[in-house]
Specification:
Blueprint lengths: L6 H7 L26 E7 L2 E7 L16 E8 L7 E9 L6 E6 L7 E8 L2 E2 L3 E4 L11 E6 L10 H8 L4 E4 L12 E3 L6 E3 L12 H12 L2 H9 L1 E4 L21 H18 L17 E5 L3 E5 L32 H13 L4 E5 L26 H10 L6 E5 L5 E6 L12 E5 L16 H7 L3 E5 L3 E7 L3 E9 L9 E10 L6 E2 L2
Parallel strand pairs: 9-10, 10-13, 15-16, 16-17, 17-19
Antiparallel strand pairs: 1-2, 2-5, 3-4, 3-6, 6-7, 6-8, 9-21, 11-12, 14-15, 18-19, 18-20, 21-22, 22-23, 23-24
The structure holds fe (ii) ion (FE2).
The site of fe (ii) ion has 6 residues, from loops.
């Protein structure tokens, strides 16, 4: 402080000081309304704990959500029982205005492979209770892991009935492959691409295309008020990644599709990634630095499963062929193309080779199978998938050769797919390198017909692809030493409440060979 400078006198002289200024009070004023309107969440588990999350939103829509510009103290508790009589850990944290009054607590010191319950308290107001399991120790002999997989949840696409079902599944963890929000403005009606029919939107975004931190916060708040989504978060720890729509359609690195100057694009990315961090139950290392939130992570379920969550956006080279879906061009074979970037790729390949588990999984966003999208006589591809990056794709598959029982979990496509992964040009009779399960969207695209008339031709054009279904839902993975079973779940309608969830198909991968067997 400068000598002789008295801030109180100065402010009083300016007429800004009636009593003790708010910023000088030690405690923030009492919160007027129930602040835990967005529920609670847990994520990023390890053998000693996980992150627990909440956000104070007493009055959504009001400036600062009805709060004053203070860090608000919050009490948190983790217990072994639902009644919170056996407290395992407890403490106090601050919900800071800089982070939109979100709170992330990294809980540690818990016992491995155990269920826990957690909650927050502000004054006499208590949050909902969430559940999360700690991971097994790295060397543990684990007999089973159950993972739910979901993502692509455009709020305007329809209801989150699938998340309500995930909440009842009691899984070990939930992999969110991204597209948690979508950036677009409200659309009252639009074409359903599956059926070709115009349909009205069942619920609308509450503002135009989003750009600023406040815009992104508002979109997450709208999304997170959904009760089915809150129930899923409260049911198990999430493994959170992001794809493109957390920022804008098909961005990679410093580039969006509108060719916005990189230095301007990076400002939007900074806003988007801060909001993503604020709303996700992720560790402190996911706090964006210069707009990049880039952790890729290992989730090790003992000796049974090594799951590696990847970031396929931040270090990828721009999509080839003008990013035109269903096209093909020589740039697909560019030698200097990257998907993961060399650092992440090395971490993945070296890590899995050095100490593989019985099953080894890539948890990521874009399809690895290089499917022929069948829009022309010659092969065409999805340019926003691994198929558009032949050199790094083949290098990755070569690098992972010898890693046993490799399974890829993917999203983005808004349909269920199950198929075999091979290198570019490998014959369909050649042994597959991996099995890939692409999980359909929670809501994006609205109701689908299940089977589309072009599916049969699509399957025969892509012999490695064994299954495709166009309907909203999620998937449930059950991993045991003998096999990996994928239950592909679908909802009969997300345009009305009470939609019925069923298993459209179950596929099993036997340990030892990359092959899909129909199991139901
Ligand atoms: Fe999506």
């Amino acid at each position: 402080m400068h000598g002789g400078f008295d801030r109180r006198q100065l402010l009083a002289g300016m007429g800004l000081l009636a009593a003790t200024p708010l910023w000088a009070q030690r405690m923030p004023p009492k919160i007027r309304a129930f602040p835990f309107t967005l529920g609670v969440a847990a994520g990023d588990p390890d053998p000693t704990g996980f992150v627990i999350w909440t956000r104070l939103v007493p009055e959504p829509g009001e400036p600062l959500s009805g709060l004053e510009p203070f860090p608000y103290p919050l009490r948190w508790e983790v217990a072994e029982d639902e009644g919170f009589s056996r407290i395992a850990a407890a403490g106090e944290t601050l919900a800071r205005p800089e982070l939109g009054f979100s709170a992330h607590v990294t809980v540690s010191g818990l016992r491995p492979e155990r269920p826990y319950h957690y909650r927050f308290r502000s004054g006499d107001m208590l949050s909902a209770t969430g559940r999360a399991r700690t991971m097994p120790l790295a060397g543990a002999d684990v007999r089973q892991v159950r993972l739910a997989v979901g993502g692509c949840q455009e709020y305007q696409g329809g209801l989150y009935t699938a998340w309500g079902d995930v909440a009842k599944a009691d899984v070990d963890a939930i992999f969110h492959y991204g597209d948690y929000i979508y950036e677009g403005g409200p659309v009252a009606s639009r074409m359903n691409w599956s059926t070709g029919q115009m349909e009205s939107t069942v619920r609308l975004h509450d503002g135009p295309m989003i750009f600023s931190l406040d815009d992104y916060r508002r979109r997450y708040t709208l999304t997170r008020r959904d009760e089915d989504l809150q129930a899923a978060h409260a049911s198990a720890a999430f493994l959170c990644s992001f794809d493109d729509h957390e920022l804008v359609n098909n961005w990679v690195g410093d580039v969006d599709q509108a060719e916005t100057p990189a230095e301007v694009f990076r400002l939007r990315r900074q806003a988007a990634m801060q909001a993503w961090y604020e709303f996700m139950p992720v560790r402190a290392d996911a706090l964006p630095v210069n707009g990049v939130s880039g952790p890729y992570r290992q989730y090790r379920f003992g000796r049974l499963l090594d799951a590696r969550m990847l970031n396929t956006r931040n270090w990828r080279t721009d999509q080839p062929c003008g990013d035109k879906y269903g096209s093909f061009c020589p740039e697909v074979n560019r030698k200097d193309a990257e998907v993961l970037g060399r650092q992440q790729e090395e971490w993945l390949v070296k890590g899995l080779k050095a100490d593989p588990a019985r099953w080894n999984a890539l948890l990521q966003q874009i399809m690895v199978m290089d499917l022929d999208r069948a829009r022309a006589e010659t092969k065409t591809i999805n340019t926003d998938s691994w198929a558009a990056y032949a050199v790094p794709r083949d290098r990755l598959l070569d690098g992972l050769k010898g890693v046993p029982n490799l399974v890829v979990l993917t999203g983005d496509e808004h349909q269920h797919f199950a198929g075999e992964v091979r290198k570019t040009g490998e014959a369909p009779e050649a042994p597959a390198r991996a099995i890939e399960f692409v999980t359909t969207s929670i809501s994006s695209g609205s109701d689908g017909p299940g089977e589309r008339k072009e599916h049969a031709a699509f399957l025969s054009r892509n012999p490695g692809l064994k299954y495709i279904r166009d309907e909203r839902g999620y998937s449930l993975m059950t991993v045991t030493p003998d096999g990996w079973t994928a239950d592909l779940k679908v909802v009969d309608s997300i345009r009305r409440t009470g939609g019925k969830v069923s298993t459209a198909a179950s596929w099993r991968v036997p340990a030892g060979v990359a092959r899909l067997e129909r199991a139901g």
